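Protein modeling request. Please complete all fields; requests missing the sequence field cannot be processed.
Requester role: graduate student
Desired output: 3D structure, token encoding
Chains: 1
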Amino acid sequence: MIRPAVVIGVAVTCLVGVASPARAQGEVAINGTFTVFSDGRWAETNDSDHPELSVTQTWTVTSTCTTYQDCAGRVVSDQGWSADLVYMSGRWKVTRTVPDWEPCIDGTKHPGRQSFTFWSDYPPEPGRFVGWDKTEGPSGACGFNKVLDVEMPVTLTQVS
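Delivered output (160 residues):
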């Protein structure tokens, strides 16, 4: 019984030890122009299937890394917004505020917090990333103590 645990422990240690140094700083940073497609056909609203309009936009992405774990940058969208880009735990994340995202019956509107979280596609294909586009409204908006959230798959494809 002790022997398998020792073998598994050694294998995990070896894999972790090999994976970390293999990623150089230049391999993590992403820069260029990307087509970003949020696929509304597979959208979920509050964890239930609810198709939404698909959205295609173009992003200009700039980022730098001081180590393979410490990266940051900026995204500028052709839809008129820009936001900070951060890298954490093998994933990139962009978060922005969407004004007047959640309309209420009484005519008021509340902002949404949109987050794009993405990572290298598997198997890795240079310049291609997959992930999620998720927008959440504030709890208590429109008189309901429930957060409205819409999530759909997103694909980023580098064009230059």
